[in-house]
Amino acid sequence: MQGFFTFALNRCVMRASAGETLFIPDGAEFRVMEESSDLDVHFLLYQVEPIRDILGNQVVSMYLYSQLVPKPCYVWQTGEEDELLRYMMQLDATLLQNDTFRQYEQKLLLLALTHRLCSLYNRKLMNNQNAMGHRNEVFLKLISLIEQYYMQERGVEFYADKLCLSPKYLSVICKSICGYTVKDLVSKSIIRKSISLLPKIRNYHPIHD
Question: What string of DSSP letters covers the chain?
Answer without folding.
Answer: -BSEEEEEETTEEEEEETT-EEE--TT--EEEEEE-TT-B--------GGGGGG--HHHHTHHHHHTTSS-S-EEE--S-HHHHHHHHHHHHHHTS--SHHHHHHHHHHHHHHHHHHHHHHHHHHHTTHHHH-HHHHHHHHHHHHHHHHTTT---HHHHHHHTTS-HHHHHHHHHHHHS--HHHHHHHHHHHHHHHHHHHHHT------
